[in-house]
Amino acid sequence: ETGVTQSPTHLIKTRGQQVTLRCSSQSGHNTVSWYQQALGQGPQFIFQYYREEENGRGNFPPRFSGLQFPNYSSELNVNALELDDSALYLCASRPGWGGLLSRRNEQFFGPGTRLTVL
Amino acid sequence: SQELEQSPQSLIVQEGKNLTINCTSSKTLYGLYWYKQKYGEGLIFLMMLQKGGEEKSHEKITAKLDEKKQQSSLHITASQPSHAGIYLCGAVGSGNTGKLIFGQGTTLQVKP
């Protein structure tokens, strides 16, 4: 089990609503990434945060936004929810700014938040 | 854009049998992560391969990276019911964005 935690575990929203998902990174990790995993698919990269700034983004519209706090925890906000936003949202953290292939900079995932949009 | 294809998509094996899962990239593989996922849960880190020809083992799981073939393989020896789950490979994207590009996953069932 990793030290990455996410809340809530499950969430049900209706179309058009807004949602905030939370992630606490593993101790000592200052870089957080968010992924969306639709049923039966691999995770899709949403964005990465390092020292409270977004510095990498996948093909997601601006209604997906995030924050990172001084303690390196992070939030994912999704506005104007659509039915296709129903998915498992995964947070991942790693120790530092070095690349994903740097030794001792491996990326660890949290348990995820299951979002259902009705 | 880079794509990863995993094969097979699903696999059912008898306990004690060996098996191999392949992950093939449409572009050069600079490095690769392997994760295991229980249905609907988070991803469990298995291993990270940094360069071509690298091979790593953990317990009964061995992974190799063949840079020339743009492919990685995950081999499980003497499978156990605890090995059941979804295996995902993730290629490191270009730049230092933290982006992993994942395959669609291979679902493994191990029959006792």
Key descriptive features of the protein:
heterodimer, A: 118 residues, mainly beta, seven-stranded mixed sheet, four-stranded antiparallel sheet, 11 strands, B: 112 residues, six-stranded mixed sheet, five-stranded antiparallel sheet
Verbal overview:
The complex is a heterodimer of chains A (118) and B (112). Chain A is mostly beta strands. In chain A, 0% of the residues lie in helices and 48% in strands. Chain A has strands spanning 5-7, 10-13, 19-24, 31-37, 44-50, 53-57, 64-68, 74-78, 87-94, 108-109, 113-117. In chain A, strands 2, 4, 5, 6, 9, 10 and 11 form a seven-stranded mixed sheet that branches. A four-stranded antiparallel sheet of chain A has the order 1-3-8-7, with no helix packed on it. In chain B, the strands form two sheets. In chain B, strands 2, 4, 5, 9, 10 and 11 form a six-stranded mixed sheet that branches. Chain B has a five-stranded antiparallel sheet with strand order 1-3-8-7-6, with no helix packed on it. The mean pLDDT of chain B is 91. Chain B starts with a strand and ends with a strand. With 112 residues, chain B is mostly beta strands. In chain B, 0% of the residues lie in helices and 55% in strands. In chain B, 37% of the residues are buried. In chain B, β6 (55-58) and β7 (61-66) form a beta hairpin. The A-B interface holds A 2, 4, 6, 31, 33, 35, 40-45, 48, 50, 55-58, 88, 90, 92, 94, 97-101, 103, 106-112, 114 and B 4, 30-31, 33, 35, 40-45, 48, 50, 88, 90, 92-93, 95-105.
Tally of contiguous helical segments of chain B? 0
- Measured between the Cα atoms of the first and last residue of chain A, the distance is 31 Å
- The number of distinct helices of chain A, counting runs of at least 4 residues, comes to 0
The tally of strands of chain A reads 11
Got a strand count of chain B?
Answer: 11
Oligomer: heterodimer
Structural class of chain A: mainly beta
